[in-house]
Design brief:
Elements: E1 4-12, H1 16-38, H2 43-55, E2 76-82, E3 87-94, H3 100-110, E4 115-117, H4 118-127, H5 141-151, H6 157-161, E5 167-172, E6 178-184, E7 205-208, E8 212-218, H7 220-226, H8 228-237, H9 242-257, E9 261-267, E10 272-276, E11 280-287, E12 290-296, E13 301-304, H10 305-311
Parallel strand pairs: 3-4
Antiparallel strand pairs: 1-5, 1-11, 2-3, 2-6, 5-6, 7-8, 8-9, 9-10, 11-12, 12-13
Pfam families: Asparaginase_2
GO molecular function: asparaginase activity; beta-aspartyl-peptidase activity
Active site: 166 (nucleophile)
Length: 316
């Protein structure tokens, strides 16, 4: 099997001044994940590495770029899933951790559980030796400004929710195993303790070697109502291509509950898709040593991996 990785940096609206950074961020993440696959690493290794790259990039609503809850704090959710055996690990409402995806993987591999939240996740992180960082280090000026704006009496938080930036990755490795990973800071000015789709298996992501893997982004409550990730894999199990399955599921979510979002998909034969019903979604994929990436519907830049690595410092 030829390895494939697909990543997204969130569906919604990407402001003009942030487009270049978002394109560079997803391209970099895809290249890092692909490097893991090329060296014989597993699909799980690859999606963790790709998502960690985006958690460390303040252009995205995950890790150090996370939006703030109603109290002005960062609370993050993450999930990872191994399609080989359907093992999964997730964390929700975690604070003071740079890379929630790393903690989610430890939940999958070091506990008998699938989801740890808040204080319990914090205690587990300490037990696993995950470094704790001051919450302030995760807060960007942009996130703080957005939080303040949403506190104003005449503000419309829904306008700001369109620029979300949840991150995710799906991959298939040389042995034909698939995996998914998703990480987010959630909704700006959300209620304390709110958990969205990301940490919920079948909503924020799903991976099964029998069909494929997907990671979702968009309006979390809508995604949970239709269990979007699992719905896409169901459509593929009925014989749909990744692209048709993604479009069918996104259309259903839009007509049934009025929700918009985006998805990345890879099937068990290595076909992939990046589809969205929002205005934009930053995405990138590497297959056959070629990097493809874009933000707008119909936009697709293509570079060889060698060319992309050479130009990485210049921002693609």
């Amino acid at each position: 099997m030829k390895p494939v990785i697909v990543v997204h940096g969130g569906a919604g609206r990407i402001f003009k001044e942030r487009e270049e950074g978002c394109r560079a961020g997803v391209a970099r993440a895809a290249l890092r994940g692909y490097a893991v696959l090329k060296q014989g690493g597993s699909a799980v290794d690859a999606v963790e590495e790709a998502v960690r790259s985006m958690e460390d990039d303040s252009h995205f609503n995950a890790g150090c770029g996370s939006v703030l809850n109603e109290k002005g704090e960062v609370e993050m959710d993450a999930i990872i899933m191994d399609g080989k055996n359907l093992d999964s690990g997730a964390v929700s409402a975690v604070k003071c951790i740079a890379n929630p995806i790393k903690l989610a993987r430890l939940v999958m591999e070091k506990t008998k559980h699938m989801l740890l939240t808040d204080h319990g996740a914090h205690l587990f992180a300490q037990a696993m030796g995950i470094p704790e960082i001051p919450g302030e280090k995760l807060i960007t000026e942009r996130s703080r400004e957005r939080w303040k704006k949403n506190l104003e009496p005449d503000s419309n938080p829904e306008e700001f929710q369109k620029d979300l930036g949840t991150v995710g990755a799906v991959a298939i490795d040389s042995e034909g195993n698939v995996a998914c990973a998703t990480s987010t800071g959630g909704l700006s000015n959300k209620m304390i303790g709110r958990v969205g789709d990301t940490a919920c298996i079948g909503s924020g992501g799903y991976a099964d070697n029998h069909s494929g893997a997907t990671s979702t982004t968009g309006h979390g409550e809508s995604i949970m109502k239709v269990v979007l990730a699992r719905l896409i894999l169901y459509h593929m199990e009925q014989g749909m291509s990744p692209e048709v399955a993604a479009d069918t599921a996104l259309d259903y979510m839009k007509t049934r509950v009025g929700g918009l979002g985006g998805v990345i998909v890879v099937n068990k034969t290595g076909e992939w898709a990046a589809r969205f019903s929002t205005k934009q979604m930053s995405w990138a994929t590497v297959k056959d040593d070629n990097l493809h990436y874009g933000i707008y519907a119909g936009e697709k830049h293509i570079k060889s991996v060698d060319e992309a690595l050479a130009s990485e410092r210049e921002g693609f």
